[in-house]
Each structure stands twice: as C-alpha cells, then as structure tokens.
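Protocol step 4 of 6: structure prediction from sequence.
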Amino acid sequence: MYESACMTDDDEAFLNCLRDAPDGGWDGHLSRLLPSDWDRILQMARLHALAPWLYEKLRDQPLLPVSVRDTLQRAYYYSTARNLRIQAQWRELLALFDRHGIRVVTLKGCDLAWFVYPEPGLRPMTDIDLLLEEKDIASAGVLLVANGYRADTGASGASGKHTMPYLKHGGVPVELHYHLAEPPYAERINLAELRARTREVDGCTVRCLGPEDRLLYLALHTCLAHGLDAGLLPFIDMQRILHVDGQRLDTRALVERARQWGVERALSVMLGLMQRFLDGVPPVLPLPPVAPAMLEASVPFVLERPCRLPEGFMKALTAGSGARTWQIIQSRLFESHGQGGGRPVAGTVQRLAGLLRKYSRSIAGGVFRHRELRQRIRREQQRRALIDWIARG
C-alpha cells in the first residue's frame, strides 16, 4: 500500500540549501549548481513558502547568483512587510480581548514568527489563530463583529476545534479556537492543564504554549490534522523550536504527554523526517521507533505538495460504498457545523455556494481529466493509509 520514493537530485539540492552545513561547505555546494538548478530551487522555495528562510540562509554567500539573491530578497521584504501588518492586527485583537477580560493563547504562525524565528519575516503566515476558553467564544465573536469583522460563511465553515474565520478588510482571517484538536484527540488533551502551562512572553503581554506543547501541537497539526501535506515549513518550525527551547525541554514530560495525547508516532515521524530533510539532530526520546521504510513512504507527501482536491470531495470518492459517499456529502452540505457555545453556523445554501465558489475549478479539472483524477484518488488513498498508520501509534 505504501510507496517509498528516493529524493531526486533537485530535492537534495534544495534541501542542501536549507541545511546548516552542506557537504563540502557552502562554496562547494553552490559552485555545483547550474542555472536550471536555481530555477528548480526557487520553484520549490515558493511551493513550500520558504523563500524568506532561504534568503536568510544564503544572503551572505558570495557564490549566490545575483538574480537569485534579488528574487529571494523580494520575497523576504514582502514577507516582513506582510507580517508587520499581521502583527499590528494581532496586537489590536489581544488588546481588545484583554480589555474585556478574555484570556487568549496565541497559536501557530504569530507565536512562531515572533518568538521562535530570529526575524518575524522569516516565517510566513496566512491567518491569526487564538485559543480561547469555550465560554468566551460567543462574546469574542460579538466583539469582532462590533469592530469591523464579519464571519466567513463560505466553504471553510467551522470545525470541531475552531469557529469559522472572521474577516476584516485589509486584514488576514482570524480563527477562534476552543480546542487544539478534533476528536478523538480533543478528549485526550486537558485544556485547563495546558493553559496553566502557557508562558507569558514579550513583556507579559502575550501567552504562548510551553516548549513541550509547542512540539506536540506541531506534530498533531502536521501529521494528523493535515496529513503531511503542509510541505517542509513545519520541519523548519520544529528545528527552530528545538533550537530555541531545546535546553529547557522536559523530555520526560514530552514523552508522557505524547502518550496521553496519542501522538507518540506522529512525534516520532516528525523528528525522523526533520533529521532526514534537514540533518537536524533530534533529542533522544523513548518513543516508538519508526521503520525507515515508513519514513521514506512519508517523503513524497511532504515534498510534492500536490494540488489536492477538496477534503470532503476526496473523502466521498474514496468512501468505498454509495451509502458512505452520500453520508459524507450530507454531512458536508446539510449538517450545520458548530452546535452551541455561540459558534457561528452557516446555512446550507451558503455552504453549498461557498464550496462551489471555492472548488469548482479544481473539481471540474479533476472530472474532465479522468487519468489525473484516478491518480489523485490513488495518492489520497495512500496518504490516508499512512495517516491511519500514524494515528494507530
């Protein structure tokens, strides 16, 4: 069921640019690259949202071609300017919620960009993720609407862990999380204990996850929520977390909590792939071993970053029976997401219109290109089998 694939020369050339010390040193590595190699490296940097980080790694290298340096520099400046705008929006939200006594924990991009990476522009972001107590979700939504936001009732909708995004002109989407994960993981994570472990940073104005929870949430989000389809960026995230928090990491608590959350194998896979891609040295942890063949089977799903069809559409196509297919379609279109707790609910017509608006081109392309559709279905089946294997850990 699983297919392993050796990394190509193009993959290795790109990964060597991300590593701290390529074989032969930077001069030896860069001198071997042809213009066609640089075209592929830039393409992969864009695909994995790593152009700013690649600029950070290579900008002082004299053998870096001028045109490549200029391209990476533009990406770096654009990311920095964008992140500064996001920071202003994020700070406004923190101040707004603080004035109304709503406790907030910053997750993912804003946390990592400002407190894990050496410069905020090196870690691209697409939205703002905030963890709130569930009792505050409704009040927070009212506050956002009163301050110029609107709930996005389109295709994204709400999930089992956050509200539908809130949008504001000139800003990025805001997601209010009432949990870190959907079932069955939600039942295994004690949110009260997790909030008690959060840290005050940046002059005690921001609360973020502790180092162990950062790693576990990253493994959970990358492997089990997104099925390794987020590219290489999460592995740079993990490398940076270990660099910043490695000295104060409580490895015993990390392993015990991984077992409690049910993400031991996900954490093992993340650490193994980080070592595979970046030559990073993971901490020695008593985690279930992952066979090299399983790590190799994971590699294509990280590196290829295929343009996937919608999640619900792929679930329906791979359901295995007509009854199950209809059940999935019904749940996606006709059952409201988010019950109680003040979570916004999108109507059937709005959800259907949003799905068609967001995915019509992708679905039509797949339907009319039958061979490509079959290949995507097969790859999705392999990916889901791999996720199921990771989840069984």
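Step 5 (inspection) to follow. The radius of gyration is 21 Å.
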